[in-house]
Design goal:
Radius of gyration: 20 Å
Structural class: alpha/beta
Shape: globular
Order of helices and strands: EEHEEEEEHEEHEHHHH
Largest sheet: 8 strands, mixed
Strand order of the largest sheet: 1-3-6-7-2-8-10-9
Low-confidence stretches: none
Mean pLDDT: 91
Helix content: 25-40%
Number of helices: 7
Number of strands: 10
Strand content: 15-25%
Length: about 290
């Protein structure tokens, strides 16, 4: 394996951190409702932050699968929105620092990338990593967003009721990171928000709020969410208005509400087939790497 430390550059003025938490929110795989990306954009827009580590994207990114947008102006190329994979030092509302790893999920060299993150975790004395995800599920938008929590140690997710049973899903760099960290004896956990499957292609800030609440709870942070709550209210009103004009849509939500309430009351889990079917439908709806529209 090539040296993992060669995969990133750490800022010369190394931050003075007190055993921070590292939140990793990688884009490009399953992010129903854009909940993870919305959450990270909100954090970087609303809290003081600076990039302290930058990864060599050229070694990790498949440009032909995810082509960066370029701007052409009349007779020349003006700019390119190059992908960036960075760790930011972020300060929460109470003045507590934490780290946020965000950017495109690596297309290759996953093991080397994870080893590099593990090295940074050691150098920066990180005490816990938290991964974020959002998955499409057969749940209604009229009920609270449920979080599926998982971790390398059971006590890290105390208080969470399991919402998903055993299921086989396509791997991701973030989930593999948690697995490998557990094998190394490092504390790692993940939070996945359940997004109504019929809204998986639209921005769904309610799921972003749930993810940030989960991070705040696990890490002891104060994370503002006022802007997301305003957006969630607007989204809910728009969805309600659209469904009010659709007999089929209203019937679907009523059915999902009944199933949701019964499952919560009985603490029953979705079956692997149900979850797998929703995930397959979501993945099938995503642009293919060779699709000229992507």
């Amino acid at each position: 394996m090539n040296e993992p430390d060669d995969l990133y550059v750490l800022t010369p003025d190394r931050p003075d951190l007190d055993q921070p938490v590292l939140v990793h929110a990688l884009h490009g795989f399953v992010d129903a409702g854009g909940a993870v990306e919305l959450a990270t954009q909100h954090l970087l827009a609303s809290l003081p932050n600076r990039a302290i580590a930058t990864f060599a994207v050229d070694l990790l990114h498949d440009y032909r699968a995810r082509r960066p947008p370029m701007v052409f102006m009349e007779d020349h190329w003006e700019s390119v929105e190059a992908p960036r994979l960075e760790i930011h030092q972020v300060t929460d509302a109470a003045g507590t620092d934490f780290l946020l790893l965000t950017g495109p999920e690596p297309d290759m060299q996953w093991e080397r990338f994870i080893a590099a993150v593990a090295g940074l975790v050691g150098r920066l004395d990180v005490r816990l990593t938290i991964g974020l995800a959002a998955i499409p599920m057969g749940v209604p938008h009229t009920r609270p967003v449920r979080l599926t929590a998982h971790a390398t140690r059971l006590d890290l997710v105390t208080g969470y009721t399991p919402w998903v049973g055993t299921v086989v899903v396509p791997g991701s760099a973030g989930n593999l990171l948690e697995l490998r960290f557990g094998e190394r004896g490092l504390d790692a956990m993940g939070l996945a928000a359940g997004v109504p499957h019929y809204l998986a292609q639209l921005p769904y800030p309610a799921a972003s709020i749930a993810l940030l609440e989960g991070v705040a709870r696990a890490a002891g942070l104060e994370l503002p969410d006022a802007a997301l709550r305003e957006a969630a209210v607007e989204t809910r009103a728009a969805v309600d208005a659209q469904l009010a004009e659709s007999v089929e849509g209203s019937a679907l939500v009523t059915s999902l509400e009944q199933t949701y309430d019964e499952a919560v009351a009985a603490s029953e889990l979705p079956t692997a087939d149900e979850l797998g079917a929703e995930l397959e439908r979501f993945l099938a709806s995503q642009p293919r790497p060779d699709d000229p529209r992507s």
